[in-house]
Design a protein that fits this description.
Organism: Herbidospora galbida
GO biological process, one term: transmembrane transport
Radius of gyration: 25 Å
Helix content: over 70%
Strand content: under 5%
Structural class: mainly alpha
Oligomer: single chain
Order of helices and strands: HEEHHHHHHHHHHH
CATH class of one domain: Mainly Alpha
Subcellular location: Cell membrane
Number of helices: 12
Protein name: Sugar ABC transporter permease
CATH superfamily of one domain: MetI-like
Number of strands: 2
Keywords: Cell membrane, Membrane, Transmembrane, Transmembrane helix, Transport
CATH architecture of one domain: Orthogonal Bundle
Length: about 300
């Protein structure tokens, strides 16, 4: 008896079909990602204001980054808001997802899932406009409800203390639904037999969560940490609509500052340098998170 030892050959049409399916994505990446990135990199070495021919400036735009005191403050406010938004989405999102997966009527779970997910699919500008009215110091519903409880009105959008908090609340309210949805998918992928076996062994709710749910959910948590880190550092619509980055720069983000330099001051070369360095910062943060994830996986 003889066996066929020749490897199975791939049909000739598979390569062409794969290329046909990949072509739209490849073209989209080349046109809308790679080409603009290369253009911004080139532009960062020029002094150009949109109205005249650009002049080569070498590394001058990058040198300005180290003397721009305002830029350091904007990085500080961006980091503060981004880290709080990240914590809310990752920690509170997990808590809400676990609560939604507890035993309750199906229609109640469906209602709350829809309630959390709906803001995520709405335009960020529309969400910010609605909350701008709700957080109005004199006419806003939030301050009206605070007044009913006897508390003083809060200048949500005009105070350097409360303005970044307002941006954090609005952005978290809009984006937490995505984290909850991903967490629910991760929770549903965990075999029920493991939890049932733990219950039989007498493990409590906290022990089951810490010993079973959390370790098996760690890839989902890592994914959400990376995605939410990138997204929270790039927020633009909420501070732009709610506070215009003020008062001062207390709620201004890097993306908003970049926009002001490019289309407010028409200093596109310097704005491009800010964009390039900001992209490098995000790459470094993502690399650190991947390194930590590998260490955590090895530790487990």
């Amino acid at each position: 008896m003889t066996t066929n030892t020749h490897p199975t050959t791939r049909p000739r049409g598979d390569g062409a079909a794969a290329l046909a399916f990949l072509t739209p994505s490849i073209l989209t990446f080349l046109v809308f990602v790679l080409a603009p990135t290369v253009g911004v990199l080139i532009l960062s070495f020029f002094d150009w204001n949109l109205l005249s021919d650009g002049t080569f400036a070498g590394l001058d735009n990058f040198k300005r980054l180290f003397t721009d005191e305002r830029l350091l403050g904007v990085y500080g406010s961006t980091t503060y808001m981004a880290l709080v938004i990240l914590a809310v989405n990752v920690v509170l999102g997990l808590l809400l997802a676990v609560l939604l997966e507890t035993r309750m009527p199906r229609w109640i779970r469906a209602f709350f899932r829809l309630s959390f997910l709906f803001p995520f699919v709405v335009s960020a500008s529309a969400v910010a406009l609605i909350w701008r009215f709700l957080l109005n110091k004199d006419l806003g519903l939030v301050n009206y409800l605070l007044g009913l409880t006897g508390l003083d009105r809060i200048d949500w959008l005009g105070s350097s203390t409360w303005a970044p908090i307002s941006v954090i609340m609005v952005n978290s309210w809009k984006t937490i639904g995505f984290s909850i949805l991903v967490y629910i998918a991760g929770l549903q992928s965990i075999p029920k037999q493991l939890r049932e076996a733990a219950i039989v062994d007498g493990a409590g709710a906290w022990t089951r969560f810490w010993r079973i749910t959390f370790p098996l959910l760690s890839p989902t948590i890592f994914f959400l940490v990376v995605i939410n880190t990138i997204n929270s550092f790039q927020i633009f619509a909420e501070p732009r609509v709610l506070t215009q980055g003020g008062p001062g720069d207390s709620s201004r983000t890097i993306v908003e500052y970049l926009y002001d330099r490019a289309f407010g001051d028409f200093d596109l070369g310097y704005a491009s340098a800010i964009g390039i360095t900001f992209a490098l910062v995000l790459v470094v943060l993502t690399a650190i998170q991947f390194w930590f994830s590998r260490r955590w996986t090895h530790y487990q």
